[in-house]
């Protein structure tokens, strides 16, 4: 009897998954445990494995389909078995089916290969000589776009020397809009830039623009997966909460000094990987212990304050923003907190994070300091009452008697739900956090 393959449930909060790609076709013989397809939830990516050995008799959903969990997505069995009862009754378009297993056509004789031309077309994968690579790097030329005149179409130095140096943006613009490429450019080393494509006489600008295909190249990106979830949550957060942001800065000499000591410590101490962000997370956890009104959820007609800190950590991933939760962060040492933050961030970036690890946060920290951001307005991860934005370290003038001293300061932006907390306790939270960061080694000793 044929075996059903179900879309598995990945975590209690996951309701559907998007099929990214099928790794098998109908008619393929598979073994139990073999990967059949790769799917994406709103939180992670994983593979669906074969639940039995046999022949793939049916694939019921195509790639890109958004399928509810526990639905039958494929069937495995013996050739000729009836699987009509397993097919879903919804309107999903069936995946392209392979030829029936029982009717394999005999292989047609292979055609005689045509002789290879001495010069290969642009983009051929016949290789690039080392000298050509070096010259291409100096000129800013992509050698894979050139027609090779070397043996078997290989791109050699003279091919690169004869090529125009043009930036990728300029090349794409010229190809998309049919613009002529000038012989020389204004970029570094004479490279042709996108601006050079528009370098025409002032009186001819209007005519040139009118002749272009407006608006030029565009790219449509469907809103789905993580992006769809983030968009929905951010909109709901702004619509359902009274958000207010307070901005300040904390003296960063203590934090920077402690980080330098960690980097210089012996490897066996295990503190070399502690980052400035880890230090901020630790200080935030300690401060939340003093301000339970910010370590809370706003749930309509009630506020839930938590006795433990389950700290959300915003992580930028190739698939979008994800917020894993460091559970019981208040019970961890700095070294333990650092290790757990790195473990969760790595899993998010790799797409292997447990979906349940992305729920249950009581307060969130988001850090844009590494990008040089000096101040921003974080959006609450509702129903949480607070979120801390960490900004770049910048020198700030400080009066020392009659003299002015420039002291490094770290920007801090606290967004809180004014429905659940008032401005005064939120401000006191920032004051306490500043004190802990300004004298971090004393915070560790506390």
Overall morphology: globular
Q: Secondary-structure element sequence? A: EEEEEEEEHHHHHEHHEEEEEEHEEEHH
- Strands, count: 18
Structural class: alpha+beta
Radius of gyration: 30 Å
- Main beta sheet strand tally, sense and closure: 6 strands, mixed
In spatial order, strands of the major sheet run 9-18-17-16-12-15
CATH architecture of the largest domain: 2-Layer Sandwich
Any idea of the CATH class of the largest domain? Alpha Beta
Low-pLDDT ranges: 95-125
The amount of beta strand, in percent, is 15-25%
Mean pLDDT reading? 83
CATH topology of the largest domain: Chloramphenicol Acetyltransferase
Give the termini separation.
Answer: 66 Å
- The protein's oligomeric status is single chain
Helical proportion?
Answer: 10-25%
Q: How many helices?
A: 10
Quick summary:
The protein has 446 residues and is of the alpha+beta class. The chain is built from ten helices and 18 strands.
Descriptive overview:
With 446 residues, the chain is of the alpha+beta class. It folds into three domains: 3-98, RNA polymerase II/Efflux pump adaptor protein, barrel-sandwich hybrid domain (OB fold (Dihydrolipoamide Acetyltransferase, E2P)); 130-210, no CATH class; 225-445, Chloramphenicol Acetyltransferase (2-Layer Sandwich), CATH 3.30.559.10. Helix content is 25%, strand content 23%. It contains ten helices and 18 strands. It has helices at 130-139, 157-161, 168-177, 205-210, 225-240, 253-264, 276-288, 334-350, 423-438, 440-445, and strands spanning 3-6, 16-22, 29-30, 35-40, 45-49, 54-59, 66-68, 72-77, 243-251, 296-299, 302-305, 311-313, 315-317, 320-322, 325-326, 363-367, 386-400, 403-417. The strands form five sheets. Strands 9-18-17-16-12-15 form a six-stranded mixed β-sheet. The protein has a four-stranded antiparallel β-sheet with strand order 1-8-6-3, with no helix packed on it. The chain has a four-stranded antiparallel β-sheet with strand order 5-4-2-7, with no helix packed on it. The chain is globular. The N and C termini lie far apart (66 Å). Mean pLDDT is 83; it is low at 95-125.
């Amino acid at each position: 009897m044929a075996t059903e393959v179900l879309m598995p449930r990945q975590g209690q909060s996951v309701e559907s998954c998007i099929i990214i790609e099928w790794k098998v076709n109908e008619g393929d013989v598979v073994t139990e445990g073999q990967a059949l397809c790769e799917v994406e939830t709103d939180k992670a990516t994983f593979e669906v494995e074969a639940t039995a050995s046999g022949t793939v008799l049916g694939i019921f959903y195509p790639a890109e389909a958004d399928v509810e969990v526990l639905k039958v997505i494929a069937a495995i069995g013996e050739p000729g078995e009836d699987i009509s009862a397993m097919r879903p009754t919804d309107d999903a378009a069936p995946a392209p089916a392979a030829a029936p297993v029982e009717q394999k056509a005999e292989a047609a004789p292979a055609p005689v290969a045509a002789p290879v031309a001495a010069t290969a077309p642009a983009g051929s994968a016949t290789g690039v000589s080392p000298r050509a690579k070096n010259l291409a790097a100096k000129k800013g030329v992509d050698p894979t776009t050139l027609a090779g005149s070397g043996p078997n179409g290989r791109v050699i130095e003279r091919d690169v020397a004869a090529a125009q140096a043009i930036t990728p943006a300029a090349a794409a613009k010229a190809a998309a809009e049919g613009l002529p490429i000038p012989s020389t450019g204004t970029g570094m080393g004479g490279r042709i830039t996108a601006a050079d494509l528009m370098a025409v006489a002032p009186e001819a600008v209007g005519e040139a623009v009118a002749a272009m295909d407006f608006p030029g190249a565009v790219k449509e990106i469907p809103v789905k997966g993580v992006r769809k979830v983030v968009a929905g949550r951010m909109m709901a957060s702004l619509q359902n909460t009274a958000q207010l942001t307070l901005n300040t800065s904390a003296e960063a000499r203590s934090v920077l000094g402690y980080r330098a000591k960690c980097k210089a410590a012996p490897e066996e101490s295990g503190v070399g990987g502690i980052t400035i962000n880890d230090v901020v997370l630790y200080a935030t956890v300690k401060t939340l212990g003093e301000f339970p009104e910010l370590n809370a959820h706003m749930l309509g007609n009630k506020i839930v304050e938590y006795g433990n800190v389950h700290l959300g950590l915003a992580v930028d991933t190739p698939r979008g923003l994800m917020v894993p939760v460091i559970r019981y962060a208040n019970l961890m040492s700095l070294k333990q907190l650092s290790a757990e933050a790195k473990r969760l961030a790595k899993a998010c970036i790799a797409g292997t994070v447990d979906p349940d690890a992305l729920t249950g946060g009581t307060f969130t920290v988001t850090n844009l300091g590494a990008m040089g951001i000096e101040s921003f307005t974080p959006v609450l991860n509702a129903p949480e009452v607070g979120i801390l934005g960490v900004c770049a370290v910048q020198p700030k003038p400080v009066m020392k008697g009659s003299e002015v001293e420039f002291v490094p300061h770290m920007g801090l932006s606290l967004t809180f739900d004014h429905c659940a907390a008032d401005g005064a306790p939120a401000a006191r939270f920032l004051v306490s956090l500043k004190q802990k960061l300004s004298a971090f080694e004393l915070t560790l000793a506390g």
